[in-house]
Write a sequence for this structure.
């Protein structure tokens, strides 16, 4: 049974967003009351929403990925779809990184910035956690020592790795053995969709708290020194969505603006909460109705949450150039080519929760030998940039299963794809 986000939810989210801005401005003007309201009302309301989202992600990803792989049919079709998915992900995120570098070089967001007068304490905790990151360690870290512990800690890449192995092994079992378990996992997936639907009723309150804390803490005047970076980020996200993703959609035979209208509530929710995990169930459901078969959408979208972060990749490039320019560090063509390679690695594996892009940016700066302390400057206004970045991540992951389905010759007209049945797990992906 599909999950439909009530139209009134969008209105309530907008009300929560506007109310949060207003309350934040008022609290910023009356600092004697600010600490109490933030500590006792706004921050708990926002934190509760984020915790609810984190609670949903792991079981949902595991169940959807298992059902998507185990129900994919032949291992040949599964391997082909998986290979095409990863080729597409790495291609589009590499384009996003290059796009961010081009925008950063053209608009020079860090030119004229004086970090020496506004620099906060160095971000040593983030740097220390990522300074040893390299390809070998990253690959080893993906494999969990204990899958239960990995699930408990919310390590999405490790959960995805195990889910892929589990789904592949399940698909190899005889039909009479695998059908009951696939049915159970399908039930878990459908139940988590319902849980998400229930949690969404709280989202306006959570967004109210998150936005209120941001505005109350920093105020509108504190945003002015970094207004150029904020503005360029919004422009870059918009241009990438229209020019790059719009072109990809056109090549795949997808009506881009029609797709935007179809997922407008998900984009608004992701933008407001800065958490892409909030809309994963809706995306899977809507992309299936839009024409991507359930096995493809259930596999591609969860994978995309770790490997297809267009917005995060774009901002990693833009933020890195901003910090380099602000410190007066001239990066030549060879240096920026190396940055592309570094960011292709560091942009993978981000969880769909607010602020993880912080760690990605820190890892990129560390690997490139650039001043990690510059992250502290962005920290104050990062949430304002995290919002459009997250929305772009969601848009990219909505388009991905449609592209893969078209590549496989399986894309149907919107509304013609019937939900996958647990009783028929051998739905073929082959054209």
């Amino acid at each position: 049974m599909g999950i439909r986000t009530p139209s009134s939810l969008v209105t309530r989210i907008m009300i929560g967003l506007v109310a949060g801005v207003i309350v934040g401005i008022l609290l910023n003007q009356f600092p004697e009351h600010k600490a109490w309201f933030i500590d006792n009302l706004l921050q708990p309301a926002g934190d509760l929403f984020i915790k609810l989202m984190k609670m949903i992600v792991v079981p949902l990803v595991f169940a959807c990925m298992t059902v998507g792989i185990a129900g994919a049919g032949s291992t040949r079709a599964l391997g082909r779809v998986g290979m095409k998915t990863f080729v597409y992900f790495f291609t589009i995120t590499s384009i996003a990184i290059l796009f961010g570098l081009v925008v950063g070089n053209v608009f020079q967001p860090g030119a004229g910035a004086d970090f020496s007068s506004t620099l906060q304490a160095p971000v040593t905790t983030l740097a220390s956690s990522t300074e040893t990151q390299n390809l070998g360690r990253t690959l080893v870290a993906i494999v969990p020592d204990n899958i239960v512990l990995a699930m408990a800690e919310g390590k999405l890449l490790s959960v995805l790795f195990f889910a892929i192995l589990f789904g592949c092994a399940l698909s190899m079992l005889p039909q009479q053995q695998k059908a009951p378990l696939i049915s159970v996992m399908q039930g878990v997936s459908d139940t988590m969709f319902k849980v998400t639907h229930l949690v969404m009723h709280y989202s306006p309150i959570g967004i109210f708290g998150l936005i209120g804390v941001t505005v109350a803490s920093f105020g509108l005047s504190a945003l002015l020194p970094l207004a150029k970076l904020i503005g360029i980020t919004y422009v870059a996200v918009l241009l990438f969505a229209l020019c790059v993703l719009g072109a990809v959609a056109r090549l795949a035979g997808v009506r881009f603006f029609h797709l935007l209208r179809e997922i407008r509530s998900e984009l608004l929710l992701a933008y407001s909460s800065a958490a892409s995990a909030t809309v994963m169930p809706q995306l899977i459901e809507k992309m299936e109705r839009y024409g991507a078969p359930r096995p493809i959408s259930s596999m591609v979208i969860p994978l995309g949450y770790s490997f297809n972060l267009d917005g995060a990749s774009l901002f990693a490039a833009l933020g890195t150039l901003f910090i380099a320019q602000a410190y007066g560090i001239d990066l030549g063509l060879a240096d920026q080519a190396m940055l592309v390679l570094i960011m292709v690695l560091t942009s993978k594996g981000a969880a769909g929760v607010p602020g993880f892009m912080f760690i990605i940016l820190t890892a990129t700066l560390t690997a490139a030998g650039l001043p990690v302390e510059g992250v502290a400057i962005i920290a104050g206004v990062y949430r304002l940039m995290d919002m459009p970045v997250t929305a772009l991540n969601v848009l990219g992951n909505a388009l991905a299963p449609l592209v893969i389905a078209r590549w496989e010759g399986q894309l149907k007209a919107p509304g013609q794809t019937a939900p996958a049945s647990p009783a028929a797990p051998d739905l073929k992906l082959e054209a």
Notes: The longest helix spans residues 31-70. The two ends are 27 Å apart (CA to CA). The chain has a mean pLDDT of 78. The chain has one domain: 7-407.
